[in-house]
Amino acid sequence: MKRLVLMFMAVLLTGASDPWVDAASQDLHGYARALSLDLRGVVPSEAELEAIEAAGAIDESILDDWLESPGFEEQVILEHREQFWNLLDINLLATRRLNIRSGTYFNNRRARYTRLATQTHCGDFEATVDEFNSPVEGSVQINEDGSLSEGYVWVEPFWAPGTTVKVCAYDAQTHDVTDDGVDCSTSEGFEEQQCGCGPNMQWCFDNNRERIIETALVTDLNERVREMLQAGGDYSRLFDGENMFVNGASAHFFRHLVPFAEANYESPVAIEDLPDIPFTESAYIAAPLKDHHDGILTAPGWLLRHQTNRGRANRFYGAFLCAEFMPTETALEGDDPSVLPSPDLQRRSGCLDCHARLEPWAAYWGRWREAGARYHSDEDIPAFSEECSVCAVTGTSCPDICDDYYVTRPSHTDELPYLGWASVYAFLQDDHSAHPDLGPLGWVDKTSETADFGACAVKNASGWLLNAAASDAQAQEWTAQFQVDGNYRTLVKQIVMSGPYWGGE
Amino acid sequence: MLLWMMLACSGGTKDVALVDTVVPEEEPPVLPGVGETDWGETEVEPSVPANTRQLKRMTVRQARDSMEQISGGIVWGGGSSSDWNDHFDTLGVADYQLRVESDRQPSVMFQKFLDDAASDTCRRWILGEGSAFHSIDDPDSAVQADIRANILGLRWKIQGKARTDGDPIIDDYLTLYTSVRARTDSSDHAWGSVCQAMFTHPDFFMY
After folding, report:
1. How close, in Å, is residue A504 to chain B by CA atoms?
2. For a FRET experiment, which of A115, A460, A499, B30 has its CA 20 to 30 Å from that of A75?
């Protein structure tokens, strides 16, 4: 039976022997406790302690078991939540939000089209409706201000099968298409009185369901960390993994709600690959990502938590390169107020200290919607648009897509060379113009070529486990090993078996 | 002094004149100046940065889960969800929105809630049916050797320390036990106090 090689050198070198000063000098019991808490988040069980006492050491097999345990996965997930800042509390989709008044659900955003005025109460009476929950002619009450009150119907909502809730009849309508052929399952039906929330209210949600969906998007990131460990610990899998993890809530969101905001969202998984599970299914299922995804860095949970491309780049820079943007002392000195500042932040004094690097890095997310989670392919948004260029140069009216995504209305002479170019390509120098098409994985690949990425992974892991910075020599040794195998579990094992973690007593 | 007090309380002003008065010196004595360098130099903290593992406080989750495991599954508060979970924000657990880094200081707030959790957990652990709280056959035993053995067992369970006698803190726990038992005439109360003391000691929550 192979036992851990206990290193006494650290204690000898530092001369530290007080466990309150140097926890690495604790006895075997202290080591077992620290190891178990760090790796599993809980103290050793009585049986485990007895086994360790009987053996007089922690067998490597015990350590391996702990490193393979679900508890270890949870600890690594928690450590990575600190890197991701993983939480969502946003307004996902305002147009499909249900409010509740007097115990009745209604969509106030659409009330001006259904009841002809916002905040109109649909009434405390049961509606007379047809098989689509549409109020029958003559059953709708006309109020003094001209607004309509149609009454409510009882609906079995998708979030609570087997129960019923009161819903204003117009909002409970189940038409797929209107009499005029408008699709009610997309944003096209927003202004249509005949469109409602669909069968079982599947096209709408309230605040509680929004929280559940957001939790599902957050948990996807956690599950990708778990998958990385369960697949062996190859850290690169976080960035090039081919799956996301969906439960009933997120599958419902992608299938039924995303079509109402296609400018902002897309399903990261082809609809036919989404699991056909009810909203209430809480288990997370792996589903294959579309080709253009780059692991966690394009996960909805990441994109929606860090809503701007600069914010996305900044978090990656801090979390995975252990660096931060710091201007020099003189950097923020003011410009000449009589000169219109350049919109190119890479050149604007006061900004360039950070933005000379940040702008090209933010461009790695250039094909991802800001304040959203949608990918724009080269077909959707070509880097250069002749049509947008023409309207920009001639000053004629531009299509919405040009105004939304292209440089068309220059406010500074620095923008003139980029008229007709997609905004994300503007001001990018040299090979930086390739960044939007490389995607964030391009940045990961570039940093992986240097020791920066590995050194940061080591710094994060050793900071977590040692609660101190590793010595330069030790950090270099761990980094060199991580550069070779890129295995996160092996890195953790190296650290907890090292002298700096426990010198042995 | 007594004479002075008697005179002071007598109310007569003329009597005060009988007391010797202290005449201040014309000029106060010049004290020797003390420069900063005269204090000498001493190294308060080691200047070498620590590169070895440093003690850290348990996270709130670790404290919650460890207490539950040690006590055989007792959840603080007795509900389906631990009361620890209700205090995440107060205890500085990162929510990644307003706070992106968890507070790991052994703060007064942490110790207050740890004390509450320990109080509840210890009470129910001791009184629980089939509880494995005690390491001795007779929990009410007043025999010092039994009490000492139980303390060692409890310390092993709660703080993960070796079951070897000799550490001075064992005597402190013994003193705590005997004093509480003497005042309350209840071994349960006495063991509850020892249990709570062990959970709230840094030997439990620092590692």
Report:
1. 12
2. A499
Tokens of A59: 């067998």
Q: Are A249 and A216 in contact (CB under 8 A)?
A: yes
The enclosing H or E element of A220 equals helix A207-230
Q: Is A286 left (phi over 0), alpha (psi -120 to 50) or beta?
A: beta
pLDDT at B63 over 70: yes
- The CA distance from A497 to A184, in Å, is 60
pLDDT of residue B22: 59
List, for residues A375-417, the tens digit of each pLDDT value. 999 999 999 999 999 999 999 999 999 999 999 999 999 999 9
The answer for residues whose C-beta is within 8 angstroms of residue B169's C-beta and 6 or more apart is: B203
Q: What is this model's ipTM?
A: 0.88
pTM: 0.88
Element (H, E) at A16: none
Helix (H, G, I), strand (E, B) or coil at A399: coil
Mutate one of B47, B52, B133 to test the A interface: name it (highest A CB count within 10 A): B52
Q: How confident is the model at residue B1 (pLDDT cuts 50, 70, 90)?
A: very low
Note the pLDDT tens digit of each residue in B107-124.
999 999 999 999 999 999
Taking CA atoms, A44 is separated from A1, B62, B72, B132, in Å, by 21, 12, 13, 16
Contacts of B105 in chain A (CB under 8 A): none
Of A253, A283, A284, A285, residue with least CA distance to A271: A253
Interchain pair A503, B52: CB under 8 A: yes
Tokens encoding A447 = 């940093």
Per-residue pLDDT band at A338 (split at 50, 70, 90)? confident
Contact in structure between A246 and A269 (CB atoms under 8 Å): yes
Contact between A466 and B61 using a beta-carbon 8 Å cutoff: no
CA distance A473 to A471: 5
What residues does each domain of chain A span? 2-67, 94-204, 208-303, 450-502
Distance from CA of B145 to the nearest CA of A (A): 22
Q: Are B155 and B173 in contact (CB under 8 A)?
A: yes
